[in-house]
Design a protein that fits this description.
Blueprint: H1 2-11, H2 16-25, H3 28-91, H4 109-121, H5 124-127, E1 141-144, E2 147-150, H6 167-176, H7 191-194, H8 199-211, E3 224-225, H9 233-242, H10 256-266, H11 272-275, E4 301-303, E5 306-308, H12 317-326, H13 338-344, H14 351-363, H15 388-396, H16 398-401, H17 419-422, H18 427-435, E6 437-438, E7 450-451, H19 459-473, H20 482-492, H21 515-526, H22 528-531, H23 547-550, H24 558-564, E8 567-569, E9 574-576, H25 578-589, H26 600-613, H27 638-653, E10 660-661, E11 667-669, H28 687-697, H29 715-725
Antiparallel strand pairs: 1-2, 2-3, 4-5, 6-7, 8-9, 10-11
Length: 750
């Protein structure tokens, strides 16, 4: 400090008078010495202060760090206490609100009936009923990406159901996802949607479940979730992030119908649970069409490896109502889990509510291209016979979905204008191809139609066919890769039964050196009447009997026919050639005229038959290469055959056997009797032969049997149906005597 004071003294200003006297007494040398002394003093001060900083600074900094750490620790402790308090509050289940309205005391039959209707709208039975089980008793497995949840018993059983619950407990479960005993429910139960239900409807629903159902004693099964999702505590925080318990609020800018539709779709209908994409927390990205993410609501999602299609402005109101009411419309047929929704729920919803739902869905904007039904056309798509996918479609799909993709109204869905075909995600199409599909059973369409699994085809075959379908009717949809089929196949692990023989793949026609001739021969079989009108007198094609272009086992496939000729016919007393066999069909089955044996058409047909047999040796018997067998000891009952025909056959062949045509006048399913049917000389006019064909091949779309879902009738039913329709009026065939020179008449012949 002494140095400091001395320096300070030196640095003080010198009075002017002293400076004046000194300046008069000191010379230049003295002034120079004084200047040097000041510089030395300042240097000494600087070094001293620097030394103090170097010695004291680290201690000061350590002290300051300790103070900062203490303050940070205190802040962290406070934050932890606050966070812990919040976490604790979130983890504690919300309390059960007392039922101030006294719902249990005011339940009457009218309220129960109202609740029953609401339960139907909500489709409670679909999830809360296991296959073959008692309705509402639970037990259905609900697969999620995190494990399996089994639906619970919601009958009023006191021990295993909800019979001991109060309305408050029920309301809390429906709105907040918390069971009566306080455990959290997995959102596989769509309580985020049910939270929108208005209180009067919630009370009616409770009245039905608690008083309108018979109690069923059936214990609930514990969920089997993978770690860490088996800890239900995490659901409390999921709810805190994603659950909005606010009931539906009408939009005053919209009319009553729109608001009713919005209420049903967003709430009880819980449409978004399947049709809205999900976020990183597996939450629905939007719970309504409002807000920042409202554009994502019901915009399509992938659920259980199905493509739940975009519902926004997908069809006109009437088309949507028809699909929800019947399971079908002019564009599509319901598939996947939607068939159960229609069967249990939407077909029973009032027309007014269906119209409201359709109005709401129609009003939501979408950037998806609009599709319209294709105009009636007789043209064949340009790539049908020049691509592997087109030929695969011809072989395995066109019998039901038709060459123009129009389907068969009321039976098989159209591919043109079908949102599943045009979907950005092709997983729905791949899923259907691998596992098959059934139509929804509804009052309008009680007969269920089945598409069998095509998992027996390889990944490339399926990808080629689906790519052709999407290119033809998908409005620019991307092709399907074989790798995509393989990936979904690995996930689904579809089961299938193999055919009795490996059907030749028409797609392989393109690799033959005479591909053009073979394709022409194939078309002459599938489009016989259109390509050879002068030789066909009936409304039939060769493929009317020789199904799928002659590739189906037990439907006299061409691989069997080609192996048998030439052969000696004892009945005719001569050797028959393949050309004679083909002309026999023209003259009898198609009630027409024979082709010249040296014509390009006959040569093309024979070339196609010969290609079918591949490496098989002549006269070899290929499994399934004939028409199949039937128990010939049975006695036919035509009256029962009439009943079976009405139940199983009339939908395709007509109540009076007249067959079915499309809008362009083309034959879809052949007539079984009448002037436009096969004549008396045809094999199908013989009862036992017809019965064998029916047994193995009719009806189609009836069961999981590759490739047409064909067959399924008993021997007796098949014989009875054949005995009913084979004697029906049909064209005569006087030339039959020329084919029976010995006069022998088969016992079932005419």
């Amino acid at each position: 400090m002494t140095i400091g004071r001395s320096v300070n003294s030196i640095s003080q200003p010198v009075p002017n008078s002293w400076q004046a006297r000194t300046s008069r007494k000191l010379g230049p040398a003295s002034k120079h010495r004084i200047h040097n002394a000041k510089q030395q003093a300042f240097a000494t001060i600087f070094l001293h202060q620097l030394a103090r900083v170097c010695l004291i600074g680290p201690r000061l900094m350590r002290w300051q760090s300790r103070q900062l750490a203490k303050r940070s620790a205190a802040a962290a402790a406070v934050a932890a206490v606050i966070a812990g308090g919040i976490a604790t509050c979130i983890a504690v289940p919300p309390r059960i609100e007392p039922d101030k309205a006294g719902t249990a005391a005011v339940i009457d039959q009218a309220l129960i009936e109202a609740g029953k209707y609401l339960a139907t709208v909500g489709d409670c039975v679909a999830c809360h009923t296991e296959q073959g089980g008692t309705p509402m008793a639970g037990g259905r497995a609900l697969e999620t990406p995190f494990g399996t949840v089994w639906s619970t018993n919601i009958t009023p059983d006191l021990k295993t159901g909800i019979g001991s619950w109060s309305f408050g407990a029920f309301d809390r479960a429906m709105r907040k996802g918390v069971s009566r005993d306080g455990h959290r429910l997995y959102p596989a139960m769509p309580y985020p949607s049910f939270a929108k239900i208005r209180e009067p409807d919630m009370r009616a629903l409770w009245a039905y479940l608690s008083k309108g159902l018979a109690p069923v004693s059936k214990a609930n099964r514990a969920a089997e979730m993978r770690f860490p999702f088996d800890f239900r505590l995490g659901l409390a925080y999921w709810n805190a992030l994603f659950l909005d318990t606010t009931s539906f609020v009408p939009n005053p800018a919209k009319d009553t119908q729109w608001n009713r539709g919005a209420y049903l779709v967003q709430g009880l209908g819980h449409c978004g649970a399947c049709h809205t994409p999900r976020g990183v927390g597996f939450q629905e990205k939007a719970m309504s069409d409002a807000g920042r993410d409202g554009r994502l609501y019901v915009s399509g999602a992938r659920v259980e490896d199905w493509d739940a299609v975009d519902l926004r402005d997908v069809w006109a109101v009437d088309d949507m109502v028809k699909l929800l009411k019947t399971g079908q419309n002019r564009f599509a047929t319901a598939f996947g889990s939607m068939t159960a929704v229609i069967h249990h729920s939407t077909q029973h919803i009032s027309n007014d509510d269906l119209a409201a739902i359709a109005t709401y869905l129609k009003a939501m904007p979408s950037n998806r291209p609009k599709q319209a039904p294709l105009p009636v056309s007789k043209a064949t798509l340009s790539t049908t016979y020049s691509s592997r996918g087109g030929l695969g479609y011809t072989q395995f799909c066109s019998d039901c979905h038709r060459p123009d993709g129009a389907g068969v109204p009321g039976i098989f869905p159209s591919l043109a204008g079908n949102p599943n075909v045009a979907a950005q995600d092709a997983s729905g199409l791949i899923h259907i191809a691998l596992t098959g599909w059934t139509t929804a059973a509804s009052a309008a369409h009680p007969r269920v139609f089945t598409m069998p699994t095509f998992a027996g085809l390889d990944d490339r075959d399926i990808a080629d066919i689906l790519s052709f379908v999407r290119a033809s009717w998908g409005d620019g949809a991307a092709p399907v890769a074989a790798a995509d089929v393989a990936a979904l196949r690995a996930t689904l692990d579809p089961k299938f039964s193999s055919s009795r023989f490996e059907a030749p793949r028409l797609a392989n026609l393109l690799s033959a050196p005479n591909a053009d001739q073979l394709v022409h021969g194939m078309r002459l079989n599938t489009e016989t009447k259109a390509l050879l009108p002068d030789h066909v007198g009936a409304d039939l094609n060769c493929a009317s009997c020789h199904l799928n272009a002659g590739t189906v086992a037990d439907a006299t496939p061409y691989v069997g026919v080609s192996l048998l000729f030439p052969r000696y016919s004892a009945r005719a007393g001569s050797v028959s050639t393949l050309a004679q066999r083909i002309n026999g069909c023209f003259e009898r089955s198609m009630n027409g005229k024979a082709l010249a044996t040296d014509s390009p058409e006959m040569k093309a047909m024979i070339a196609y038959f010969e290609w079918m047999k591949g490496e098989a040796k002549p006269q070899a018997h290929a499994p399934g290469s004939s028409m199949g067998e039937i128990d010939r000891s049975l006695t036919p009952d035509p009256d029962n055959g009439r009943r079976v025909y009405a139940r199983q056959c009339a939908v395709c062949h007509g109540a009076n056997g007249e067959g079915r045509k499309d809008a362009a006048g083309r034959g879809v399913f052949p007539p079984l009797w009448g002037d436009r049917s096969f004549n008396k000389g045809a094999g199908m006019a013989r009862t036992e032969m017809a019965a064998a064909f029916v047994k193995h091949n009719m009806p189609i779309a009836w069961r999981q049997h590759f490739p047409l879902g064909q067959g399924g009738l008993s021997d007796q039913e098949a014989l009875d149906v054949a005995a009913y329709y084979s004697p029906m009026p049909r064209p005569d065939f006087p030339a039959i005597v020329q084919h029976r020179p010995d006069g022998h008449m088969p016992k079932d012949g005419r």
